[in-house]
Amino acid sequence: MDHQHANKQRFDAVANDWDQDPQRVYTGQKIGRAMRNALKPEGGETALELGAGTGLATLLIAPVVKRLTAIDSSEGMLEVLKNKLARKGLDNVKTVIGVVPNDLPREKFNLIYSALTLHHVENPKVLIKTLAGRLKPGGRIALADLDAEDGSFHGGDSHGVAHHGFKRDTIKAWLAEAGFEGIEITTAHTIQKQDEDGNAREFPVFLASATLAQ
Fold it and tell me: Do 85 and 61 form a contact (C-beta atoms < 8 A)?
């Protein structure tokens, strides 16, 4: 089974219980706020979110942009998101079932962002280059994911995981090669969890933000 199908099956199975984990919700909201601060939306932008999941970041970004397209491979996760949007009365979000980069919308956006999705993508370097082609000149990107680690973060539950995080210098190089400038990489959050041996571990989540050259 390839990573795409593994991810869909995995997240469909846990969609309804995803937000029952307080730490998971806190992590998603913390990263979402960091991405919102990095993107600096002013209210009139169109935005694209990769790997929207249950919308922990979506609900933070949607109110401050004109229109948002949220893509995810899991229909189950998007159903949870759509229910949240209805309860919140947010009608400026379009959900799309699909995988990246194959099913990305053809239009161009002002903002693109993603939280903890890159490590599920087979070739993130190609994805970043593709995303540059989906941004308008001067558009902003914000990508958050795990720093390079030894596989302990997912442990035995690694179905659909293509990479055990990334080195920050590698992400910076990929962004520069794709035509981005003003690249900044900071720590958006640090996830604390136990590894399979019961030892407490800290897993930093980087946030790479940049502007597409005009």
Answer: no
Alpha carbons 55 and 52: distance in angstroms, whole number: 5
Residues forming beta bridges with residue 93, ordered by sequence position: 68
Q: How many Cβ atoms from other residues are within 10 Å of residue 137's Cβ?
A: 10
DSSP calls for 66-131: SEEEEEES-HHHHHHHHHHHHHHT--SEEEEE--TTTT--SS-EEEEEEES-GGG-S-HHHHHHHH
**Domain spanning 3-212: CATH 3.40.50.150:** yes
pTM of the model: 0.93
Domain boundaries, the chain: 3-212
**DSSP code for 147:** B
> Which sign does the torsion angle of CA 21, 168, 6, 151 carry?
negative
pLDDT at 4 over 70: no
From residue 18, how far is each of 21, 93, 117, 138 by CA, in Å? 7, 20, 15, 35
CA triple 74-111-182, angle to 5 deg:
125
Region of 100 please: left (phi>0), alpha (psi -120 to 50) or beta: beta
Q: Give 121's contacts (C-beta < 8 A, 6+ positions apart).
A: 3, 100, 101, 127, 162, 163
> Quick check: 151 and 164 in contact, CB under 8 A?
yes
Least confident range of 26-35, 94-103, 166-175, 195-204: 195-204
**3-state secondary structure (DSSP) of residue 154:** coil
